[in-house]
Amino acid sequence: MAITQTQSGVQLPSPGTYTLDPTHSSVSFSARHLMVSKVRGRFGVTGGTVVVGKNPLESSVEASIDAASVSSGDDKRDAHLRDPDFFDVGQYPTVTFRSTKLEPAKDGEYHLHGDLTIKDVTRPVVLDLEYLGTATAPWGATSIGFTATTVVNRKDWGLEWNVALESGGFVVGDKITLTIDAEAIRQ
After folding, report:
1. What is the pLDDT of residues 66-83, one digit of tens each?
2. Residues contacting residue 29 through CB under 8 Å, at least 6 positions apart
3. How far, in Å, CA of 29 to CA of 16, rounded?
4. What pLDDT was estimated at residue 28?
């Protein structure tokens, strides 16, 4: 596949439809814990589509994340994250993202605007998006890769649970850093 598009001197993928590869895509998060450290975890991506437009700024992304796949390295904490205090995965099994606009930031980086839906609450977010490149696998499939980051306030999606600390502050911080690593295969 020839990569013919450029944006600010950066080679971009050829126009077309790409399917997110769940085995090479994930959403990771970090949150303050006890105001002194950070807890990190991740979710699995179950599917999605990247459409690269002839005009790169007309490209779009849709993705689905399995809320029950949350994994932070502690089974008890993960069970709590799945219950109604947080993601309530029995009632809301899927988190979704749908882009609304893509705009250039600096060489190779973009601002990807979109709607993030958690527990049936949809809020706009802006992701700092970096296109990582295009590669052809030994078996012939063409893949593209991206990394995107943003900081959100979990309370904007009704993720309210917390406990006050005697020393001040709370068990869980409100600001959550999200990092998306995505690989998509050309269809």
Report:
1. 999 999 999 999 999 999
2. 40, 41, 42, 43, 176, 177, 178, 179
3. 30
4. 96
Please state, in angstroms and rounded to a whole number, the distance separating the CA atoms of residues 96 and 103.
21
DSSP-derived letter for residue 140 is S
3-state class of 14 per DSSP?
Answer: coil
Angstrom distance (rounded) from CA 155 to CA 151: 12
pLDDT of 125-158, one tens digit each?
A: 999 999 999 999 898 899 999 999 999 999 999 8
**Which helix (H) or strand (E) covers residue 105, if one does?**
strand 94-106
How do residues 168-186 score in pLDDT, each as one tens digit? 777 788 899 999 999 999 9
Please give the Cα distance from 132 to 128 (Å, whole number): 13
pLDDT of amino acid 1 = 33
Q: Which two structure tokens, joined as six digits, stand for 151? A: 């900081």
Task: Give the sign of the dihedral formed by CA 7, CA 48, CA 114, CA 111.
Answer: negative
Could you tell me the domains of the chain? 13-186 (2.40.128.110)
Question: How deeply is 98 buried, as exposed, middle or buried, from its count of CB atoms within 10 A (0-12, 13-18, 19+)?
Answer: middle
Spell out a b/e string for 58-73, using b for 16 or more CB atoms within 10 Å of the CB, else e.
Answer: ebbbebbbbbbbbbbe
